Amino acid sequence: MAGDSLLEVRDLRKSYAVAPRAIHQAEGDPPAATAEFVGVDGVTFSLAPGETLGIVGESGCGKTTLARMLLRLIEPDSGEMRFRGQDWRGARGADLRALRRRIQMVFQDPIASLNARMRVGAIVGEPLAIHEPGLSRADRHARAAQMLEAVGLGSEALDRFPHEFSGGQRQRIGIARALILRPELVVADEPVSALDVSVGAQIIELLDRLRRELSLTLILISHSLPVVAQLATRVSVMQAGRFVESGAADQVLQSPQHPYTQALIAAVPEIPA
Ligand SMILES: Nc1ncnc2c1ncn2[C@@H]1O[C@H](COP(=O)(O)OP(=O)(O)OP(=O)(O)O)[C@@H](O)[C@H]1O
Ligand SMILES: [Mg+2]
């Protein structure tokens, strides 16, 4: 595998056991075989530092399953993941902890992903409390305030609770939390699909600005081709657990080769002149 890549993913797979339909089961029947549903079916890609990979595909195609494997929130059935040449999929103990902080996620639902009982300062500072336990409370608070400024929320947000903020502001809090450890790779899974279009556009702009300012590599996941097209330098089109087409964003968007990509592009409404 190439040494200059940030992330190398090879043949990543994840199946889910699907419970047999209990309704067809009569008492005394032998247990029905558990069916297997393939969520991610052999995904391979490599990402260079500074790239923005857009992953686009319809609901249920496996995007979140893939994202959660990339973060090691769920274990793949098989496949390899390397981060800056290190074995990320197999990392354990101190290696795992050291790698974890370098890869962070922005979640789809800014309400569900923030602890409603914690103040914003504690939410944003929590990754620091975990990964830099030696840091004083005051320093943690200062870093959280700085990060909140960077995402366009004043430090007055520190002592408030998530419910006091709008959806877009909550997503800014989620982004501040994801970035406070200065990760190298950020995986944003449907970061704007819960938001109004105009608010979502501001969040996409914010991600792009932070990407440049903090030299991030970004994986932007969305069911929406226009959202992905705004930022992606490379695009992978996902269907039924597989990448059916991957390439430079211009190439995939302007001369799509796969019928599914062509259908996605054809489905984007034109803005009347
Ligand atoms: N924990 C699970 N157990 C069983 N099946 C699951 C589980 N998680 C996901 N799936 C199934 O795997 C498939 C892929 O789900 P996934 O959430 O990865 O799709 P997605 O592309 O993120 O969809 P969406 O656009 O709706 O977020 C779906 O059919 C889903 O029902
Ligand atoms: Mg999803």
Please characterize this protein's 3D structure.
With 273 residues, the chain is of the alpha/beta class. The chain has two domains: 1-15 and 37-102 and 184-267, P-loop containing nucleotide triphosphate hydrolases (Rossmann fold), CATH 3.40.50; 107-182, no CATH class. It is built from nine helices and ten strands. It has helices spanning 63-70, 93-100, 120-131, 137-150, 167-179, 197-213, 225-231, 249-254, 259-266, and strands at 7-18, 35-47, 52-56, 78-83, 86-87, 103-106, 185-189, 217-222, 234-239, 242-248. A six-stranded mixed β-sheet has the order 6-7-8-3-9-10, sandwiched between helices. α5 (167-179) runs parallel beside α6. The longest helix has 17 residues, at 197-213. The model has no long low-confidence stretch (mean pLDDT 92).
Which labels suit this protein?
Rossmann fold, alpha/beta, binds magnesium ion, globular, single chain, four-stranded antiparallel beta sheet, about 270 residues, 9 helices, 2 domains, binds adenosine-5'-triphosphate
Count of distinct structural domains: 2
Q: What are the low-pLDDT stretches, counting only 5+ consecutive residues below 50?
A: none
For the record, give the distance between the C-alpha atoms at the N and C termini, rounded to a whole number.
Answer: 47 Å
Q: Specify the number of helices.
A: 9
Tell me the Rg in angstroms.
20 Å
CATH architecture group name of the largest domain: 3-Layer(aba) Sandwich
What pattern of helices and strands is seen along the backbone?
Answer: EEEHEEHEHHHEHEHEEHH
What's the CATH H-level superfamily name of the largest domain? P-loop containing nucleotide triphosphate hydrolases
Specify the overall morphology: globular
Read across the widest sheet, the strand sequence of neighbours is 6-7-8-3-9-10
Number of strands: 10
> Largest sheet at a glance?
6 strands, mixed
Give the class-level CATH name of the largest domain: Alpha Beta
What is the average per-residue confidence, as pLDDT, rounded to a whole number? 92
Task: Spell out which ligands are present.
Answer: adenosine-5'-triphosphate, magnesium ion
Helical/strand content category: alpha/beta
How much beta, percentage-wise? 15-25%
Helix content: 25-40%
